[in-house]
Design a protein that fits this description.
Blueprint (H helix, E strand, L loop, with lengths): L1 H20 L7 H5 L14 H11 L2 H14 L2 H19 L5 E2 L2 E5 L2 E2 L9
Antiparallel strand pairs: 1-2, 2-3
Helix pairs in contact: 1-5, 4-5
Length: 122
Amino acid sequence: MKTLLKIEELAELLLAVVVFAYLPFAWWVLPATFLLPDLSALGYLAGPRVGAVSYNLFHHKALAVACGVAGWLLGIPVLLLAGAVLLAHAAFDRLLGYGLKYPTSFQHTHLGRIGRAAGPVA
């Protein structure tokens, strides 16, 4: 099952790249904006509860889909770009095993623990 889920995440990442390829932006825009959703982790400066909310908001695929669909329907390429970047980033994170955060700590995710406390991966 784990392999199947990783294939699904890879498919979503590739879909986001294909959508980006049809947008009127230079090729370097995607890698330049790819890590922007991680700025949401700055919410952890206000504590783990606020950090988890801000991080999860910008790593939730529903936000990516909503931005992308709104950009498409309204004819706003920048909004469609935001959706593609958010989807690509979230799928890549999940592919690497980083999940949405619980309010207990940054290392406690819906996919399990991350970091040194996680121990070896089986």
